Amino acid sequence: METPTNLQYTSNDEWILVEDDLGTIGITDYAQDQLSDIVFVEIVAFEGDELGQGETVAIVESVKAAADIYMPVSGTVVEINEELADQPEVVNEDPYGAAWLLKIELSDPGELDDLLDAEAYQNLERDH
Amino acid sequence: MTKSNVQPTIFELSAPGRKGVQFPKSDVPTADLPKDFLREELPLPELSEHEVIRHFTNLSQLNHSVDNGFYPLGSCTMKYNPKINEETARLPGFAQIHPLQPAITVQGALGLMYETQKWLGEISGFDAVTLQPAAGAHGELTGVLIIRAYHRARGDEKRVKMLVPDSAHGTNPASSSMSGLEMVELPSDERGNVDLEALKAECDDTLAGLMITNPNTLGLFDENIHEVCQLVHEAGGLVYGDGANMNALLGIHRPGDSGIDVMHFNLHKTFSTPHGGGGPGSGPVGVTAELAEFLPFPQVAMTKEETEETLPFYDLITPKQSIGRVKAFHGHFGMVVRAFTYMLTLGKNGLRAVSEYAVLNANYLQALVKDTYHIPHERLCMHEFVAQGHWEDAPGIRALDISKRLMDFGFHPPTNYFPLIIPEALMIEPTETETKDTLDAFAETLLKIAEEARTDPEKLHNAPHRTPFGRLDEVKAAKELILRTQLPEGYGED
Q: Most exposed among B11, B129, B397, B494, judged by the fewest C-beta atoms under 10 Å?
């Protein structure tokens, strides 16, 4: 399972890439593997939305289950990945690249301290 | 994909000019209908009677049901449906009446509904019961609407929060959301019970209630059920019980006695009415005396008691602060007749034996497989248990592969990937009606599949092999919805 070291993670299996005040958000390799074949991605946030940490931004549905995706940190949505609606399988193929969900402008970078680094994320206790 | 058993559709079997029925010549004048309302053509399939019979008989034999095999679909209680239920439901006094008939002409049907309300109440510890809801989730919605109505009637408008443990049935969050409440999920503790500390943290004056499934979807009885109910009550909330797992409790534990205020029953699980394609469900709801006035209307009541000279009289009544009607007429009355028959057939001791055997069978099966399949919460289970369909030394194999392979041996797969809190979950519910031989055969097959997972994983990946269709493309099925029959090319053209 890949866990790039330049990203930060939540225990709910979201990742965020931070470049200055801009954050790019997606779901992890582990999450896509657990969900298995993804058939729908619905981003429920819109450009310009100001969302708090933990608010739902997307719903990802696989042949097994549907999962809510949450904001890792607070911010304003500046761009959403519209390609995913037509090509949800990209989340399985390239979770850290083409399958980014949305980009946000961070409103409280201090919240990044709540997140996990790659090593801490890998060491999370899992049932398997 | 094996194609040997694939049935052509009835449209593909059609040939112009074939007939199953000869209509007599019309003996009424032809009506002159406006042209706009008439079709140009109506391409119904044309077949002889025996072709129609063969087609549907063959299709019916491709089905898996409790009548032809083991069906351990966790949470669904796919028990055998005794055939006597079908006979009583077809008695003319029940089958050939109309819901708008005057009460005096349907006293038998109303009496049966009245008794069923009373018996369900007695079994579960509730003071009043409605038979209206169409099935389990509809019962949940009815129950949550009753909880909301209760708070509103007291002017307590700020109670909008409904707690739902992560081991609850998947419909619980939907039912509370549909009722306009905000759902907050509660975690389970390491024994699979509701986490009491997390519950305490949510107990404030915005609490509308808590929806608990007990035994929960892990097949575990919440060891702190009294304390859970007490905490919610102290905060001013009410407790909803999801009675879908009532098959573990008959004659042993009454949810109303542990502090639950509202609960639905699934007649199509616990009380042996058909579940799934075999018929509609039925989800009666029981409540405490305090909530009885909020029940949907109509309720069946005994409006005149029996005397030495006269029979009792049953009629329909409207509870004082009723939430309204939730279903046309009287719910699924035919199912109520079947459930009543089941209770009458088994009696008090028989119903208790149902739950004793359901729990015994599940524990027996769990004991047979637990050394091979990881059981995350290894406790005495109730009527079902959750195993994991995944091993570290067989990384490519998942619960789905095991489920598909079980079909090759004539077993319906267990529920998989639920509950969500257990990765690769296989939720197994044998029910009380299975023999030790069946349980042994099923366990033996599960062990064999575990071995195949190591020695021949490809066989599992490609399973099932012995069904009319092999592994279906679930991604395609989810993404490319084709919901109408695709007529053969050229069909219906002259």
A: B494
